[in-house]
Amino acid sequence: MDVLLGxxxxxxxxxxxxxxxxxxxxxxxxxxxxxxxxxxxxxxxTATLPHLxxxxxxxxxxxxVEHLRALTAADAVALTDTDSILAAAGVGASHLRPGxxxxxxxxxxxxxxxxxxxxxxxxxxxxxQTAVVAPLVVQGERVGSFVTFTATSRRLTPEDTRAxxxxxxxxxxxxxxxxxxxxxxxxxxxxxxxxxxxxSPHFIYNALAAVASHIHDAxxxxxxxxxxxxxxxxxxxxxxxxxxxxxxxxxxxxxxxRLEQARFGDRLVVRLVIAPEALQAVVPVLSVQPLVENxxxxxxxxxxxxxxxxxxxxxxxxxxxxxxxxxxxxxxDVRAGAALAGAxxxxxxxxxxxxxxxxxTFGEGYGLEVRSAAGGGTTIVMTVPKFRAGVRAT
Amino acid sequence: MIGIPLAMVVxxxxxxxxxxxxxxxxxxxxxxxxVASRAITPWWNAAAISGEYLSAASFLGVAGLGMKSGxxxxxxxxxxxxxxxxxxxxxxxxxxxxxxxxxxxxxEARLDAPRMRLLAALVVLLIADFYLVPQLKGAGLALRVxxxxxxxxxxxxxxxxxxxxxxxxxxxxxxxxxxYQFWVKTFAIALPACLLVIHLGGLPGRAALFGQAYPQAPxxxxxxxxxxxxxxxxxAATTGQLDGRAFAVAAGARRRLGPxxxxxxxxxxxxxxxxxxxxxxxxxxxxxxxxEGASSPLLxxxxxxxxxxxxxxxxxxxxxxxxxxxxxxxxxxTVRVLGLLGLFYLFPFVYSLLGRALVxxxxxxxxxxxxxxxxxxAAWPGLPGDLLAGLTAAGAFAAFTSTASGLLxxxxxxxxxxxxxxxxxxxxxxxxxxFRLAAAGGxxxxxLMAVLARDxxxxxxxxxxxxxxxxxxCPLFLLGIWWTGLTARxxxxxxxxxxxxxxxxxxxxxxxxxxxxxxxxxxxQPAALTVPIAFATMVLVSLRGEPPAGxxxxxxxxxxxxxxxxxxxxx
Lengths: 394, 571
What we know:
The complex is a heterodimer of chains A (394) and B (571).
Chain A: H1 2-24, H2 33-52, H3 58-72, E1 76-81, E2 85-90, E3 114-116, E4 128-138, E5 141-151, H4 158-198, H5 201-214, H6 219-237, E6 243-245, H7 246-264, E7 268-274, E8 282-284, H8 289-301, E9 307-316, E10 319-326, H9 333-341, H10 348-362, E11 367-372, E12 378-385
Parallel strand pairs in A: 7-9
Antiparallel strand pairs in A: 1-2, 1-5, 3-4, 4-5, 6-8, 9-10, 10-12, 11-12
Helix pairs in contact in A: 2-3, 2-4, 4-10, 5-6, 5-7, 6-7, 7-8, 9-10
Chain B: H1 3-22, H2 42-53, H3 56-69, H4 75-98, H5 103-111, H6 114-147, H7 151-167, H8 174-200, H9 206-210, E1 222-226, E2 230-233, E3 238-242, E4 245-249, E5 254-257, E6 260-264, E7 272-273, H10 281-284, H11 297-310, H12 315-318, H13 327-344, H14 348-358, H15 361-365, H16 371-379, H17 383-418, H18 428-441, H19 444-452, H20 458-470, H21 473-482, H22 488-511, H23 520-524, H24 527-543, H25 551-559
Helix pairs in contact in B: 1-8, 1-17, 2-8, 2-13, 3-14, 3-17, 4-11, 4-13, 4-21, 4-25, 5-6, 6-7, 6-17, 6-19, 6-20, 6-22, 7-17, 7-18, 7-19, 8-14, 8-17, 11-20, 11-24, 14-16, 16-17, 17-18, 20-22, 21-24, 22-24
């Protein structure tokens, strides 16, 4: 028995040793000079990229210039925005202080590479004589320049100019990626604003009417409803809160539902089955409420008699699943698909908005799913991961 | 005889199933629609954490080790509980603020390195498997005592039960189920302990507990069935019978006996099997001292280090903290866990004390792990004893099913989420299907290992799981949370160094048999050696590299109190 157990654990040790070796060891080999240079250049290029992908500012430029100097093999390099130096590295970099104006480098102010010869420095000891200024053009607009300097002792070659141009386009491409990413974020924000704008005037009218109808016969209730309404609007219209916990979102759904119940009375039956383990999951703000509003509209508003809205939240290991179910007329698969794609009529826009925002945040495997059959009610299933790096409730 | 314990096990288990089904309360009216009222209070969560934590090692192992090694075994529950102090001081609140659900989540996000997820996932599997083996071993032993079934059958039954339960959605209202299991276990260990002490009117055989005597055969003589031949060391001159043939041995003699029926006359000192030594009450009741065995100072410190630092690295425990709404609640929960565990651990040693006097035959067979199950009938023959034995059996069953479920959920989650080829792409249904498959498959390896590990003490097996956790995840958490200089490469090297050295030491200890002498204890419980190795590797390798760019943001998220809005979305 002991021998077998030993063999078993021995295999485990061997496996972990192999894993250790795989992770720690770097491929080694003797490189030819050309390959060595290629490796240096590639390393410099890949080391530059992540810094600049955050956008072009002093901090990112500072991190990137040293690698850019290795890449271009110039005596000194500098990154600038449109009117001052952001960071510099190399021989005589002390003369290129960040924030210094660019007057000395202003040759023809156009968007082509140009050479500035015979630089004049305040400090005459500076060895930097010649500069190649390559513009950084992002989405058709000049955002700054990449400058390589050549010291007095060396003549400028055409390769220097070409290297400066290539490095500049590399930098520009990365900065462009940063711009695109921030545009993506702005798009997501815009979608959230669009959803806020959609919270229907119809609902606000109905809610206020319900409050009005209670004011005389049940003033306490009316006051509570007004509080709910205030809470609802504060949550829905407060900006700068892209993610909240499921608990927060559900609290808000509650105040929404109380307003709807004041309007529908006994016609609206609400059932909540919430696993406590699911409450801390982080969801995009206003993600469950549109589903519930949808259920109320489809399940109750569109037909006579009572309707039930059921909200379930379940713990599925690394995921949390939220289901919103109504027992309304339901819909066909085609219409369900259209609702998610944003082509459906009525509440479809809200659903597609939530679906898109969730996929943007969590990736393809998450989002909404509509399960419905004509006459059999509709269930909207929302899946979120319990943790996603960088997504945090505020 | 079989009927009572079996019935009580069934009652306790179906109680847990009932809590699972009805735990999520239905609410139909607006008045109890409040979400806030559904949040788990720190007390509930603390009971759930304790319920998931108190395993076969705590329910059976601590009492067994106590009977075998005496007061030195008390360090184990001390360490098991103190581990939560380390968790409270260094990990609970920051980790909750960070929001990560599993250890691989934390490793990847804190170090911005997708490979760390892979490595952490492999270590999770290693630790969880090591921890599952003693649970299944406990199951095999307990079911054999209750029903007389072969050892492997108990393992198979419990493995299947747990796998089916987890695969069928076992995490449904898991907090309530585990909290229920905690109280089942505490009741099942406390009530028999109190009643037996009252019934016996105090502790019998005091000389064997605290004086100069060895444990002795009871007045009616001692009859032990030896299933296989064993080498026994007789501490005093004894005459006895084996299968009716008389034999006589001198004090200190070693004799290979069995298989057969060993009969020792009343009052003769109980012999000890190979690997253990018979001890007088005075030696038995000394917590530290002696160069070998469980009371060797090196082993004691190593064990304390493993348990103190290892608790924070147990994968099935950390996920429970996700249920706390914020860092403060996580801390409050941990304090309550300390209290609840302290309550539970008052009782196992009562069984050790009574067992030494009343069921000394367990010394001869080496099966001291069974003392909790065997003691009630020996101490109080008749119906009361049977009922109390049923109660302890039900508690033991709760212990290994609840811990095994938690561990299997961790294993299945890791297999299906962290190790599956890019789990994020697959849809929710596909992910759930994978989880079920992983739950079924994840039970196979620990099941087989449990069948092989029949002769290894439960507490020793659990000690290894703690040693592994202490030399891999503990440095990852402590340095990852409290040091800005940690790099992914450093963390990976440190975890690998810790895991490899700990596994190698355990393997060497197994291969060399019971090691004795200066460094021998380090092979039994390697933490004192491997934890410093892991920390040193992590720090030294990290110092050579540059910490990831997002470190400041992560530190803010880990440490800035909630509600200040400091740790918003990054960028």
